[in-house]
Amino acid sequence: MNQDSTSAQDGSRVNGTAKLPSGSDAPRTLEEVAVDLRKKVDNLLELQTDDELLQNLQKQIRISMKVIEDSFQQYRPQELSLSYNGGKDCLVLLVLILACLPSSLPTDSGFPKTLQSIFIIPYKSFPEVYEFVQTSSKDYFLDLTRYELPMRAALEVYLKDRPNIKAIWIGTRRVDPNGGLLKHFDPTDKDWPQFMRIHPVIDWHYAEIWAFIRHLGLDYCPLYDRGYTSLGGVNDTFPNPALAIPGDQSKFRPAYKLKEDNEERLGRDRKK
User: Fold this and answer.
1) 48 and 181 housed in the same domain
2) What is the DSSP string of 53-95?
3) Residue 112 sits in which domain range?
4) What is the CATH number of the domain that holds 15?
5) What dihedral do alpha carbons 43, 103, 163, 114 form, nearest 10°?
6) Using one digit for the tens of pLDDT, what is the confidence trace for 247-271?
7) Contact in structure between 137 and 221 (CB atoms under 8 Å)
8) CA distance linking residue 221 with residue 44, whole number of Å
9) Rounded to whole angstroms, how far apart are CA atoms 9 and 27?
10) C-alpha to C-alpha distances, 260 to 65, 182, 205, 207, 255, nearest whole angstrom
11) Does residue 266 share a domain with residue 137?
């Protein structure tokens, strides 16, 4: 087993092409980052638009934030954790959780300094993924525990290491394997480590994920700009053939150019 825990440090920056103020105005605490993200999300929600994609995105955001707020009603902050692997879906989920923090925390508790999270490292993980997890966990003040173990074993160890954890937010969507029948709140199966799985973005579509990331100017794993649309390990993850540039099959358009959910995983489990 290879496991370590890294808490976010001061002096971090929030991911994104929309840079935060420098110097003394830069956020230095999770609370300041969360308040900044809430403003950005609220601005998106208040946007008057005829664009159908953005209208659907606004609906999805409201549903997801209600699920997150409900999770804070059912569990104390110290009983909640986030499954984080640096992918696009859990990045969106992370930002929504932080945006909900200012209005969801109990009035008798102080603002947390970090957000508990777990990173189950894929077999032969991409260096770019690991680096993005490393930097973004500092940007967003994650108390991130890493495990190089199969998922079930990693969760067993994590719950022993953090016995207070009762529920874990997960960025699974319908198009993911075993995602078709999931609800917003699902307890784990009896033969798995016991906790509540919370799926706030379960019904988001691929295009909505990227609309959120790009509208808020969030930084993301650079593999997405090379045509990767679903990230796993180096042995089962390749650029999406649907994004190949005609006339040059060695070059690919960025992931956000893909539109269809059913094409998202075309780069997984295939031969080079």
Assistant:
1) yes
2) HHHHHHHHHHHHHHHHHHHHHHS-GGGEEEE--S-HHHHHHHH
3) 3-198
4) 3.40.50.620
5) 60
6) 887 899 999 999 999 999 999 865 4
7) no
8) 23
9) 12
10) 24, 21, 8, 7, 11
11) no
